[in-house]
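tool_call: predict_structure(chain=1)
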Amino acid sequence: MSHVKAAGSKAHQGVHIVGKRRGIKKYSGEQVISGNILVRQKGTVIHPGKNTKMGRDFTIFTVIDGFVSFRKMTGHKRGQFYVDVLEQPIETVEKSKSKVSEISDK
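tool_result:
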């Protein structure tokens, strides 16, 4: 038997496995329809929020038509990420809040 291992022999014996295609499928602000997959993940890295549900393989999908929004929790749930589906885009919600503040200032 040889006392010297052949160069690179172990590196090429591994099996090549295709990726699982996990990750975020719809990003913040994108328009989605009911049933669209938002996140494919292993475990609860991202939690389901408003108008979203989680499948048994931790896939997060939308229940209504709307726009995707991500948020990071504070307080005792700090560090957790949630994905929501809102009926209006985020810009529209912020504009309507500013209009309300303008009216209340008068």
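agent: The beta strands are 23-24, 31-32, 37-40, 46-48, 52-54, 60-62, 66-72, 81-86. Proceeding to next step.
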